[in-house]
Each structure stands twice: as C-alpha cells, then as structure tokens.
Design goal:
Blueprint (H helix, E strand, L loop, with lengths): L16 H5 L8 E3 L16 E4 L3 H12 L1 H18 L2 H13 L2 H10 L26 H14 L3 E4 L3 H4 L8 E4 L17 H14 L2 E10 L2 E3 L10 E6 L4 H6 L6 E7 L4 H4 L15
Parallel strand pairs: 1-2, 1-4, 2-3, 4-5
Antiparallel strand pairs: 5-6, 5-8, 7-8
Helix pairs in contact: 2-3, 2-5, 3-4, 3-5, 3-6, 4-5
Bound molecules: S-adenosylmethionine.
C-alpha cells in the first residue's frame, strides 16, 4: 500500500517507502530517530515504535495527530477557510503567529501552503518560506481522512523531541533502526549546524556492538553532482542504490531535471536479496560487501 503524506516533508522517503520496507525485519522495537514526515513508519514490522526529531513543532504535530486527529483537522480547516476567504494575508499572519508561539497547527498549515512545501528557517530560527501563490492548500476533507488514517498508524509510536543519539540510547538486540539523517556537509534547516559524520559513524558502530539491525539511506548523486560520504566499510554489510526521484537533493539543489540516487547501507545481509526476490523492484541491485 502507498500511504499519502500527512506531513509534507522535503527529503521524504515516501516514493520509495514500499520498496525500502522490503528490507525491514521483524523486530521488538522499531526506531526512527530522524522521523521528519515519517514515510517509513507505516512499514514498521512490530507493534512498538520510537520516533524522534530535532524540530519541536514537528514532534508536537505528530503527537497531536496520534492523540486527536479530529482537532488537527478542525484547526487546519478553520485556517484554510480563512485563507480562501481573505487570501494570502492570512498565510503571513499565521506565519508571524507561528514565529512567536511555534504552534503546531500553524506549522501544519504553513507546510501545506508554503512554496513547494519546503520547511525553511532563517538564522534566527524563524520560518521564512513564502506563500505558494498558485496552490490553495490541500482540501480539508482530504486531509481529515489522511489524519484519521495516520492517527491509527502512529498509535504504536512514542515521539520525542530529542537528538538522534538520545533516541537510540535504549536500542538493544532484536530492535530495528531506520536512519534517514540530513546529508553530511549540509547545514540542517533547523539547527543550522552541519551534521557531524564522525559522531554519526560512532553511533552506527555502537548499534553494531549492541546487536541491533539498522538500515541507512545516505549519500548519493544528483545528476553529475556527487554527495559521497561513504561510511567506513567495516561498519556495514550490504549496500545498494535507489532512485529517489524528487527527494531532498532536488529541493535543496533546485534541480528538478536531475536523476537523484541515494545509497542505502545495512548492517546485515538480507536473505531475500541473495534469493534474487527483489530484482524487479530495484533495477540497481548491488554490491554485497
Ligand atoms: C531527511 S529528513 C527525514 C525524512 C523522513 N525519513 C521522511 O520520510 O519524511 C531528516 C530529519 O532529521 C532531522 N534531524 C536533523 N538533525 C537531527 C538530530 N541531530 N537528531 C534528530 N533529528 C535530526 C531533521 O529535522 C529532519 O526532519
């Protein structure tokens, strides 16, 4: 099944979620420490999930979707109706409010009506993207049904607004971790600091010693540009490439025509790949390391 995005997120894995999920294992607890728009959450193969992100309003929104989807839908609808009636001034008013109070319903509205759905903050931590003139924002009834669906999906998740390393502290053998961090060398849109790859590799090594399984979507190429931050070979066991189409690179580099490819790393060998079961899903199956 393909799930609609309830929270639009640049860098979302939505377009490849189903294919990627074929590499997911049954586990005790599923961890997603860079949850963003959470495209992989519906595919967790367990009934216990832990998800986190560094952006507080995003985690507040996930918690609201989990506990009260009707309220979220009502909040969106009232803002959307205002927008249809009064025009783009409503967007800028809501953006100002959001920058004062970080209200998660304002945040949802902005993600649905800003240019290309791109969540962008300035150095002062203020949301600064403009109104998408040619788009009215998703219809409230459509969003309402998506919210109800996602509320059920995320019921088994606990959400935290913490750094990924804190989220992973309790990971143990038998758990599964899906990692979709920001690209190395790029500044995080929220924290405005570069993602530290050495710390990240240390964390992957720690997960290896704990005995948990992990799958990481990481470096890649956009057209002729290469973003190769290949993790040390000793850390992972299997690697392949996927076409992620209009993923984060496209948004970041504003290069819609480029083919976007990302590398996927795993610290275990998927048995089904050895049996060639996925040949039709990924045309670029790969190198076993
Ligand atoms: C590529 S996005 C994840 C997209 C997600 N897989 C999806 O399908 O929508 C990376 C996320 O990591 C978050 N992030 C960045 N640095 C982080 C950190 N140190 N700890 C936790 N989350 C972080 C960002 O806020 C962003 O939402």
């Amino acid at each position: 099944m393909n799930y609609p995005a309830v929270i639009k997120w640049s860098g979302s894995k939505r377009l490849v979620a189903k294919q990627l999920s074929q590499y997911f294992s049954n586990c005790e607890t599923y961890y997603e420490p860079f949850v963003g728009g959470g495209a992989m959450m519906p595919f967790a193969k367990t009934n216990k999930g832990v998800a986190s992100d560094i952006i507080p309003e995003l985690i507040n929104l996930w918690n609201a979707i989990k506990t009260n989807p009707k309220l979220v839908a009502d909040e969106y609808q009232s803002r959307w109706e205002d927008l249809q009636e009064k025009g783009q001034e409503v967007y800028y008013q809501i953006r100002d409010n959001f920058n004062q109070n970080k209200n998660c319903f304002d945040f949802l509205f902005l993600t649905r009506t800003c240019v290309n759905g791109l969540i962008r903050y300035n150095k002062q931590g203020e949301f600064n993207n403009s109104f998408h003139l040619s788009r009215p924002g998703i219809n409230p009834d459509t969003l309402r049904s998506q919210l109800v669906l996602w509320s059920k999906i995320v019921k088994k998740f606990v959400f935290y607004n913490i750094d990924y390393r804190e989220c992973l502290l309790d990971v143990k053998s038998g758990d599964f971790v899906f990692l979709d961090p920001p690209y190395g060398g790029t500044k995080d849109r929220y924290t405005r600091v570069e993602f530290d790859l050495n710390n990240f590799y240390n964390e992957l090594e720690r997960l290896n010693t704990v005995g948990a399984k992990w799958l990481l979507t990481f470096d890649g190429t956009a057209g002729k540009r290469e973003y190769n931050y290949v993790p040390p070979k000793e850390i992972y066991k299997h690697k392949f490439t996927i076409n992620t189409g209009n993923s984060a690179f496209t948004k970041v580099m504003n290069s819609k025509k480029d083919t976007i490819k990302e590398s996927v790393y795993m610290n275990f060998n998927p048995i089904h790949i050895q049996a060639n079961l996925f040949q039709k899903t990924f045309d670029e199956i790969t190198v076993c390391v």
